[in-house]
Amino acid sequence: MVLGLILALASAVGTNVAFLFKHRGAVLAPPIRVRHPLRSATDLFSSRWFAVGWMVAILAWGMHVGALSLAPLSIVQAVLSGGLVFLAVFAERFFGFHLGRRQWVGVTITAVGLVVIGLTGGGAKHPEHASLGALIAVEGAIFGIGAALVGISTHRHVLPRAEGLLLGAAAGALFGVSDVALKWLTQAAPGPLLGLLSPWTLTAMIAGVISFYASARSLQIGEAVEVIAITSVAANLAAIIGGILVFHDPIGSGAPEIGARFLAFCLVIAGAALMPAPMRATHDAA
User: Cα dihedral angle (136, 62, 85, 253), rounded to 10 degrees?
Assistant: First the structure.
């Protein structure tokens, strides 16, 4: 359990550093074209910053998978949620972004809300019993929401900044689909080729590919910190919902915990609403 939490914390740091590296590389690459996915991927990885960010992201993903195999999903996501604070600190200290007081408040209360949601689940006190039916329903619903957000972002009248936020939310939802599928794979009995032929492996891969392009495009056209934060919020909420509905992580052991979770959810919504505000890169970042 302790090792799982350490891995989750390291993954949170690595994930946010990777996002900032990828943003720096994505804005230097040619715009992503849906009709030319291979060329777009090649252009992205031709950027040194994006390539470095992707390597850091792979390392963080490996630690994430390790954390999922050692600790309950809701607890892992609670630790990862705290990574929003790392995002804000790294963005200002090392990547030249300026966050106003409004953004700091939004990032902080969102991180606190997500942590409370995870920690009040009591996941560490109860054995996990996964439900296949719930897995199919949750994965299908979240995948559908992610696809719908991508579709809405393509409308002509959507402004670039709004498009970036929509794509960031879509990418986060699909990252959540991948997380829930991976958690299932860490608990399921090994299938052919150590489970690699499982339909949930395919689900995680499809969600991962779509989220790759959606996230990269959102970083190209959106404000870096707010897009990364929205992506993180969507991913964490999707995974926490999956933990409750699929793996039966408890909603709470009593009225105080249930009330705390409801209040925390309100904090997450309020914090997410505060984050999309005018932000600018400093001259150093430019």
Answer: 50
